[in-house]
Design a protein that fits this description.
Subcellular location: Cell outer membrane
Membrane topology: Multi-pass membrane protein
Shape: elongated
CATH class of the largest domain: Alpha Beta
Keywords: Cell outer membrane, Ion transport, Lipoprotein, Membrane, Palmitate, Polysaccharide transport, Porin, Signal, Sugar transport, Transmembrane, Transmembrane beta strand, Transport
Strand content: 15-25%
Strand order of the largest sheet: 7-6-12-9-10-13
Oligomer: single chain
Pfam family, one: SLBB_2
CATH architecture of the largest domain: Roll
GO cellular component, one term: pore complex
CATH topology of the largest domain: Outer membrane lipoprotein wza fold like
Number of domains: 2
């Protein structure tokens, strides 16, 4: 009971916290596809609280959680660089380095260029350990799924979660994506077989998938929603409380 009241309070607060957004803003189906359409140029951008390993070939003193070593020295042993609240990490020899918003490829080139003061043709590898997509609701194995790729399809992630349960409402599968300070929510109808190529949208690390039950009430099936000043985790809690 207390949990339900807390969720309702949070949802009400989000509704009134920003007058410039309509949380139940109606959108045409074409706009929904446009908002989540496949972007071949998309690359993951490093975020605050990301866990990063840095590997420099043959330079253990410059590496943190190196993938080049004989022994596993990464997340299992707590060896990583954490992106702090200011978007920085502390790199051996290079010191404080701003990384937030940079792609892996961009950061690798920047570090290689700086290391060339001491090394000839340094080989650098960077990995974000916490790239993940969350699958909740009527699937066999709801989970936070680690993804190495930047491009992952909806049905691919559903498959990794064990597939749909018997009571899954395929007419209203929800995708949540962080967009700055706001969260965009879209509704996908997977029962329209002729439109599966469009409905099987491309997901990004950090996205949430929510699969409601047929026994739950319909909630904004027809619309794309902006939830202002929220994180995908809090938005997912709100929607799970409504389904």
């Amino acid at each position: 009971m207390i949990k339900n009241i807390a969720i309702a309070f949070l949802f009400t607060f989000l509704l009134i916290s920003c007058k410039t957004y309509n949380v139940l803003e109606e959108a045409q189906p074409s706009q929904i596809i446009e908002d989540f359409k496949y972007d071949p140029a998309y690359e993951y951008q490093i975020r605050k609280d990301d866990k990063i390993t840095l590997s420099v070939w043959g330079q253990d003193d410059l590496s943190v959680g190196s993938v080049y070593g004989i022994y596993n020295s990464n997340e299992v042993y707590g060896k990583w660089l954490l992106v702090d609240i200011k978007g920085n990490i502390e790199i051996p020899k290079l010191g404080t380095t701003y990384v937030q918003g940079k792609t892996i490829a961009t950061l690798k080139e920047e570090i290689k260029t700086k290391l060339q003061k001491w090394l000839v043709n340094p080989i650098v590898d960077i990995k974000v350990l916490n790239k993940e997509i969350v699958v909740l609701g009527e699937v066999r194995n709801p989970a936070t799924i680690q993804v190495d790729k930047d491009h992952n399809t909806l049905l691919e992630l559903i498959s990794k979660a064990g597939g749909f349960e018997m009571y899954a409402n395929l007419k209203s599968v929800k995708i949540l994506r962080q967009e700055g300070e706001n969260v965009r929510v879209t509704n996908i109808d997977l029962t329209i077989m002729k439109d599966i190529p469009n409905q099987n949208i491309m997901l990004h690390p950090g996205d949430y998938i929510i699969v409601p039950s047929k026994k739950s009430k319909d909630f904004d099936k027809r619309i794309s929603t902006i939830i202002p000043f929220a994180t995908v985790a809090s938005a997912a809690a709100i929607l799970m409380g409504q389904l």
